[in-house]
Amino acid sequence: MVAIVAGAQTAVTPLPDGGWRVEKTGGIEGQYAAAAASAAAITGDFVLRVTDLTAPNSAIFGVSTDPSASDGYADIDFAAQFYGADFYVFENGVYVPPTRAQGGVAWIVRSGGVLRYRIGPTLAGSSVARTVSGVSDPLWFDCTIGRLGGAIGVRFEPPGAWSHGPVRPAARLNIGIGG
């Protein structure tokens, strides 16, 4: 499990599924100056799942080569945003159209140097919003939240760390096999 560490004006607490709740606890409403990042970078493939816990929210999250660069969003190399009911993609602080409906769960997945932004309740049921090739640097989870009291659920792991696939425990079925 890759730990998420509180930065400026945030609180981080564990979630039952092995993820982390990141909440903006201070600062000015609407100002992106509340940050949190992973305790370590992932050098290879990864799955990042971010859930909007306080819709409507105002949170920008993604992966970065240097999460200590700032508490804002311009230095997050590959980012997505939950803003109300919308989902936006930002790369190095620049908006990349089009805007989509957010649906409450976003995924950023790197596989073999290809990074995909996805939207949907499960990874298997998600749709690709954008694909970027040639992404090979070690990357850290990085985020900033604008809404005071706004919170996101974060899980950032290599693909093999997701037991039974990347789903929330509530979505799992326990089916006994008997004879």
Termini separation (Å)? 36 Å
Q: How would you write the strand order of the largest sheet?
A: 1-4-13-6-7-8-9
CATH homologous superfamily title: SPRY domain
Overall 3D form? globular
Question: How many domains make up the coordinates?
Answer: 1
Main sheet overview? 7 strands, antiparallel
Low-confidence stretches: 164-179
- Separate helix tally: 0
Assembly form of the protein? single chain
Structural class per helix/strand content?
A: mainly beta
Structure commentary:
This protein is mostly beta strands and about 180 residues long. The protein has one domain (about 5-160): Sandwich (Jelly Rolls). It is built from no helices and 14 strands. Strands 1-4-13-6-7-8-9 form a 7-stranded antiparallel sheet, with no helix packed on it. Strands 2-3-14-5-10-11-12 form a 7-stranded antiparallel sheet, with no helix packed on it. A hairpin with a 2-residue loop joins strand 8 (about 85-90) and strand 9. The radius of gyration is 15 Å and the shape is globular. It starts with a strand and ends in a 22-residue tail after the last strand.
Task: Write out key terms for the chains shown.
179 residues, 0% helix, 14 strands, disordered C terminus, Jelly Rolls, mainly beta, 7-stranded antiparallel sheet
Summarize the structure.
With 179 residues, this protein is mainly beta. Helices cover 0% and strands 48% of the residues.
